[in-house]
TrEMBL record:
Organism: Slackia isoflavoniconvertens
Keywords: Lipid-binding
GO terms of molecular function: lipid binding
Name of the protein this chain belongs to: DegV family protein
Coiled-coil zones: none
InterPro entries: DegV, DegV_C, DegV_domain_contain
Amino acid sequence: MIGNNGINGAIKQGIEKVRGLGDAVAADAAAVFGEAAEAAATAVATASDAAETVAATVAAAAGEGDAENQRIAVLVDSATDVPPEVVEKYGVFIAPLHVNYSDGDFLDRVTIQPEEVYRRFETEIPKTSTPAPADIMSLFDRIAAEGYTHVIAVTISSGLSGTYDLVRSIASGRADLQCAVIDTKSIGIAAGLTAVLVCELVGSGMPFSQVIARAEGTAERSEGFFCVNTLEYLYKGGRIGAATYAIGSKLDIRPTIKCNEEGKYVVCAKSHGRKGSLKKTVSLAKKVAAAALEEGRSVRFAVAHGDAEAEARVIVDDLKAEFPQAIDVIFCQISPALVVHTGPGLVGVGVSVL
């Protein structure tokens, strides 16, 4: 959290201490229950929930103002995929990443759309860069001019982009706004799920600090899995070596990637062929959801695609049929800024554990 009056640093430390206490209680409970895995898992979830609830209460009580007088804006970068209908409903502010070609610079989903990026892959693979500092400063100016008092910014992983640090730096200089910047440690629709939750909580009238505590806890428990259709773009982008590219392509090995705890890309599974890769990606998401439901938590899915709509819609139907208790299964298109690094045919499945 970025504080303007000196109290927010203490609030943040208090939240972390309470969460740490919850983790310790959870670990003790698991040790006591020994092999009773189900009881231990329930104790862990209960302790974690208690810590998060107390953290939010402590933060709210620390004096961040009357919730009724708070006007909270939600800001995201364009690689944090938020469905257009959510953006419109909650008035989300978006800082576009840059898509850089040899013949010019384009703003993600502003001056260039996904379809054009896919079309131009045949002639050039572009590069991406963070939003321009001036653009972010302009967004904060707009937010202040529209009468907002608080800002919650949700960004893609600091392990993949400098966007989080950039937004955080600019937010820290805003004496006129109370700001918090959430590093999702993820990307695409997986990061977008946290932003969707923030929108809903803000829309419900929840106070600023409580929204932050809930969103950060959910982000830590949530996962996103991405099925890559080809190794070509990972190789050209320097994310895999020549030997891996050559052997994987010859054997038709398709990786499933996710972000690790540091928010960096890792290969979490390898499958033979497109069909096997899609199946594996979905099964990983289902496993996370099933474990969360066993612990008594709620889940929300999101399915996003980069030029693979038909396959993605089949996955949506599958998840709805197998998990009717899920809050929702969101569907949207993946940001070009992500597809640039993985190529067309990308399918992502996110699970938000609430």
